[in-house]
Amino acid sequence: MRIGMIGSGYVGLVSGTCFAEFGHDVVCIDKNPAKITALKNGEIPIYEPGLDDLVAKQIKAGRLTFSTNIADGVSGMDAVFIAVGTPPRNGDDGADLSQVFDAARDIANAMTGYTVVVDKSTVPVGTARQVAKTIRATKNTTQFDVVSNPEFLREGNAITDFMRPDRVVVGTDSERAAEIMRAIYRPLYLNETPILITTPETAEIIKYAANAFLATKITFINEIARLCEVTGADVQEVSRGMGMDGRIGSKFLHAGPGYGGSCFPKDTKALAQTGRDLGAVQTVVESVIAANTQTKETLANRIIAELGGDLTDKTIGVLGVTFKPQTDDMRDAPSLTILPMLQAAGAKIVAFDPVGRETGQPLLPGVIFADQMYDVANNADAVVILTEWNEFRALDLDRLADAMRTPIMFDFRNIYKPAEMIHTPFTYHSIGRVKTTPVAPKLRQVGV
Ligand code: UDX
Predict the structure, then answer these.
(1) In what helix (H) or strand (E) does residue 195 lie, and over which residues does it extend?
(2) What is the pLDDT of residue 441?
(3) Ligand 1 closest atom vs CA 264
(4) Cβ(235)–Cβ(432) below 8 Å
(5) Per-residue pLDDT at 92
(6) Rounded Cα distance, 368 and 352, in Å
């Protein structure tokens, strides 16, 4: 198959490269000449484990090329994917679809024969029909079909998610288009990945409903965690007990500082907006959005209260600023809410992130970024873990405590165990579990 990918951002680049790995010929298009030049040289503008090697491999195999000229990605193609950004629009919580419709017009002008136009970007229900209308309005032709084919890629895991998905969703009314989509995804089909062929509207809603449901699961357990804190229960055990019920499942039940990233915050808001616009208000999703904001604020207030209210002259070390590990993405990261609240209470913040420094620094004015992980502890009054990077999982806690003014830890990813932390110098706060203090700290000091 010959595939054009309009937009070489995160989704476009991962999808295009993986389609090339499937054996298709792929041309990735982007309007940004600097990005295309870099990609031609095998330089990847995003942090995604394994992507650089796969891009290099496909360029070498001659199956993956890059261009700024839209015609290169449209003329003679079997399918052209729209994988452009759909950022939040000004004025409300909906998605700004201007780049999608620009791409639709560009595709219409460059089409040479029957083409399947595929919405890969996350777009609200009804967009596939509007894309079809836009193409017809631009060029008087029926030689195309529009398909909705949402992505379910997790940052940091995108290649595996693409190569071994739980399912592929294809929304189209056209059997001809469905046949081409089956051919494109054939390597997965051979692996017995279910391919759900449905209508465009259903496919569009599946994407939002799936993300909103996962965001709901996370938010639900975050609220249960608060209940655990005030009752002495353990949220991790609660998650395990719930997850053993096959109807619930154990995934996405890890309590934390609130969901962030490029999808959940934007998609929940856009779904809520669509519900309001169409008179089908999504009460659960509306509550999830509000509760997630509250989770982040509650945690910041908890640190402030535990440290005495006024944080003037206090230094807080922060481990992790990105919204999750294995990415440099700062979009809607809980750090962006929590750290400014600590600063407003007077705290000096020293942070370390294995890859998020470059992206995080401009968004966190006044936060000092440390070169080394243990530097955040120097004369600190508390250390806060906000992202569960692997390097934070086996910290030398004595070394950390020795450097601190007071060994207090807020582990908002629950990567340590209270039963173990009592044998360290730390007063240990986590999420949905009891606060612990060191056992017999005096004995420890004399080395007994
Ligand atoms: C998500 C979806 O998983 C993916 O299918 C979709 O296409 C894009 O959005 P991503 O944003 O990369 O992917 O990250 P994900 O790993 O799903 O985590 C999202 C957020 O939820 C992160 O902030 C993470 O820390 C948080 N989270 C996740 C929890 O707090 N607890 C959990 O149990 C799982």
Answers:
(1) strand 195-198
(2) 55
(3) 9
(4) yes
(5) 86
(6) 9
Query: What is the maximum alpha-carbon separation in the chain?
Result: 86
Below-70 pLDDT ranges, the chain = 441-448
| Mean pLDDT for the chain overall | 95
DSSP state of 224: H
Other C-beta atoms lying within 10 Å of the C-beta of residue 204: 25
The answer to whether 236 and 432 have CB atoms below 8 angstroms apart is: yes
* Protein residue whose Cα sits closest to atom 25 of ligand 1: 324
Going by C-alpha positions, the residue among 381, 376, 444, 440 that lies closest to residue 408 is 381
Ligand 1 lined by 324 (C-beta under 6 Å): yes
Ligand 1 within 6 A of CB of 153 = yes
Query: Tokens representing 278?
Result: 């169409």
- For 24-48, how does the pLDDT look when each residue is reduced to its tens digit (9 = 90+)? 999 999 999 999 999 999 899 888 9
Over the stretch 298-346, which tens digit does the pLDDT of each residue have? 999 999 999 999 999 999 999 999 999 999 999 999 999 999 999 999 9
Q: In angstroms, rounded to a whole number, what is the distance separating the alpha carbons of residues 257 and 280?
A: 30
Residue 40 in contact with ligand 1 by CB distance below 6 A: no
328 closest CA partner among 383, 376, 261, 255 = 261
Does the Cβ of 152 fall within 6 Å of ligand 1? yes
Q: Is 261 helix (H, G, I), strand (E, B) or coil?
A: coil
Dihedral sign for Cα 157, 162, 163, 166, please: positive
Q: How far is the CA of 281 from the centre of ligand 1 (A)?
A: 24
